[in-house]
Amino acid sequence: MLPTPLPLLALWLASTSSPVFAAATAGSFADAGSTLVSAMMMFLGNEEKVYIMDKAEGNPTQVKGHPAWGSVWDIKTHEAVPMDIKTNVFCASGMHLPNGSYATFGGNGAVGRGGAVGSQKTEWGSGIWDSEYQDFDGTKAIRVVNPCTSSDNFDAPTCQWFDDPSTLAMQKSRWYSTAEPLADGSMVLIGGFVNGGYINRNTPNIDPEFEGGAAENTYEFYPANGREAKPLQFLIKTSGLNAYAHSFLLPSGKMLVQANLSTMIWDYDSNVETPLPDMPNNVVRVYPASGAVAMLPLTPANNYNPTVLFCGGSDMNDYAWGNYSFPMIDTFNYPASRDCQRLTPEPADGSAAAYEADDDMLEGRTMSQFIMLPDGKMLVVNGGLNGTAGYSTATGETFSYGDMPWGMSLAAGPIGRPAIYDPNAPKGKRWSNAGLGTSNIARLYHSTAILLPDASVFIAGSNPNVDVNFTTIFPTEYRAEIFYPPYFAATTRPAPSGIPKTLSYGGDSFDITLPASSYSGSANAAAGNTTVSIVRSGFTTHALNMGQRYLQLNNTFTVNSDGTIVLHVAQAPNPFVFQPGPALFFVTVNGIPSIGKMVIVGNGQLGKQPQAAASVLPANVLLDSAKGTADGASVNGGQQNNQDNSPNGAKSNTGPIVGGVIGAIAVIGLLGALLGIFLARRRRAANRQMPTTSSSSYVMTAGGQGAAAGFTGAGARGVRSSDSSAFVPLQHDNHSQAWNASTASLTGPYRDDAAAASRGSGMVSMDYDPYASTPRVPVQNRY
Ligand SMILES: [Cu+2]
């Protein structure tokens, strides 16, 4: 029998007795342990911890006597521990709060095994609680957590999720809603389904506003502060393809919103919509087309005027998209889009906003996502060549689950190789995957990725299944990986000192010192090629990083005779350009980022942020004779020309290990080719059994043009015989009208007034306040 590649690599790595994560080779993927639950949603809590959420499902890992659907993963040890989440956080939205806490919004009703409605039901039949999985209804939940570190007691309630919809809840049920932060640290929650479904509409679509109670085409604020949920016409116009709408706060204080093929600028205060042009080429970018969408870096050079990049997704026709039940075509045979468009919603010259065709991606991608890297480039990672997000037991063309070629997955052709987009490269040269390795783990529906403080990228999840399934072709995935971008070729990382722990909006500049050992060669050149940036990695789910944003701070510099470079750095411009809350602070020299430090931007409070005049910076002071003392061998690693990037050129202080890994990868490549032939034969043979290991059950692709061909044949069949699905026909009554608003105050102490009041009556333990437990805003000091 053919051995599977993964054990071979594991065996080889074991024989070197090196920790797996010691081999931080530029362009490579490395094992990062287990997430314990499938990483459907994640965020970086602080410099130590990544918080992970899954839907309520039958994960073997238990917490408090039931399957876990939350965990926290440690960046140093690569180990996760389960965390208890009470409600079903299935496909929620999430966002940071100004003090560095995080909140998640909505989810699904309580479910039990196989996605069945929970054992305790409402009168209209949705799940309140399930006796086996012990999850509560999460449709209106607002869950808050204060990120803790290893020095905290994680078992203390102050480090655990606050999750009690009876005291803190949205006004409406929202599944697949969007959360976009506002300049005062509050946020707007947009749309969503009331219950489940593939897309948010019925056939025929005669009731686009309500869909008989299944669509929640409204928005609300958190904290609500007296503001009631209101209908959003844009969601009605984009009916069906309007979940997880793409939204970006703009410098004007208005918001770009994109869904289906429509685009608008929204004044959310007065609920006035200004239409912008439709998305060209019929490409849908929202779930379940799930294009990669992100705002390009905001820089002094572009005067902090945002441009949003939309890449990939699907140009399936309107009929093909189907309805709540499933798509009308076999999506897994339909190639995803390669199309990229740029949009500057508010052009500086006052001209009309217009989409501008950008370079096509190197391959079509669905469910790929952008990760903003500290060097100002954008990594696209995860996803598939064909199909869409979502899972189902049938389509309009394949009626029975037994005939579904990829189990419940509506996508196929997992892409293992990332690509990097350089927004500053000339048109025609913006995409490259040269030097980037290929993962052997499929990251399809419900996979995630997020930037870590060391500027690597944490990648996890994938579970196109209604419940845990280890035997289908695209199984429930717990294996995490770390991807090391090209700048990991550098032998020396900049080591800045004096980074403040908080940033203000305008006001006095601050100085950061870069020692001569941070760079090599001319100090003048290094200083001139240094950027200071804050990167908000966001809340990742469904190929989105909600709230992700990259801001380059304005700076000047003084070069000293001993080679130290003093950077004079401006504060953030204003809270519309970069909303209050946490971010990673990087200093990038010659394309090599420092290790990111977590900072809080703004005053850490909800409410109007203090603003001062823009920082005034001293003029540059250069000194021709000054030089850096770092080993210059590979300081240019992150600056490599895209076209010349080569994995073998990657230098590392773990040289022998690198050679070995590349050798092992070559062997894997050969095995992969053999495996491809093997699988092709196996697919031709009917009635063959599923392999027992997932790594041998699908073929990863490195992408590339035309790679979508070849995924049209019937693949292996899943072994589940159950016909249960999240996408069963819905009860079309809107039961989400009951008032249960957050009454959190925007002034004074940041807490939910109703929750605070109820604590006195014993509804919630007095010893736990989800907001005020730990001071998230440190006293003004420096790293
Ligand atoms: Cu989902």
Keywords for this entry:
Immunoglobulin-like, binds copper (II) ion, membrane, 6-stranded antiparallel sheet, 5 helices, globular, 8% helix, 783 residues, mainly beta, 6-stranded mixed sheet
Can you describe this structure?
- Keywords: Membrane, Signal, Transmembrane, Transmembrane helix.
- Residues 493-600 form the Galactose oxidase-like Early set domain.
- This is Aldehyde oxidase GLOX.
- The chain has a domain at 502-649: Immunoglobulin-like.
- The protein is 8% helix and 25% strand.
- The chain is built from five helices and 46 strands.
- Strands 7-6-3-2-38-39 form a six-stranded antiparallel beta sheet, with no helix packed on it. Strands 34, 37, 40, 43, 44 and 45 form a six-stranded mixed beta sheet that branches. Strands 1-33-32-31 form a four-stranded antiparallel beta sheet, with no helix packed on it.
- The radius of gyration is 25 Å and the shape is globular.
- The N and C termini lie far apart (55 Å).
